[in-house]
Amino acid sequence: MEWKINKVQRDQVDRFEIVQEDVTLPNHTDMHFSFVNFAKGVCILPITEDGKVICIRQYRHAVKEWQWELPAGAIDPEDNEPLSAAKRELEEEVGCQAESWIDLGSVYPSPGSTSEQIFLFAATNLIKTEQQLEATEQIDPHTIEMQELHQLINSGEFKHGAGLAAILRYLIKNES
Fold first, then answer.
1. φ and ψ at 57, to 5 degrees?
2. pTM above 0.85, yes or no
3. Which end of the chain is less enclosed by CB atoms within 10 A, N or C?
């Protein structure tokens, strides 16, 4: 049974929309619920011909540190589908195009507090182009062995949620 929405307030704060709702639960309890309404996004697992992975190191101001991640970004209004956004983000962030794409589905990274949905892809048969960073991005690409990526994950140094989901989906898909 769904929650009944009685009142909605939406506030735009920079690139985020904060939604506040007064709702009635199926058990007739009234409560106030808020969440961040996000644009949909993409995350790409770029795999080189020799089985290495292109990861990025990116400064993330919200946590005030450099993070190991996979290339990712928002689906812009001009993107007609998630794959076109993935192609754009791969070239912008790591300077590569891919001849082959594997759809790895989508995830909701934090559905208790955001509406964000991220579409996951693996990219193979990579062709080197040129990195095209946005003015606000600080990104250093690193090509690493899959075993080194596993070590970064196991040690807790790789914390990128969408990246972890993409890696897991890729590994499971290739087990079968």
1. -110, 125
2. yes
3. C
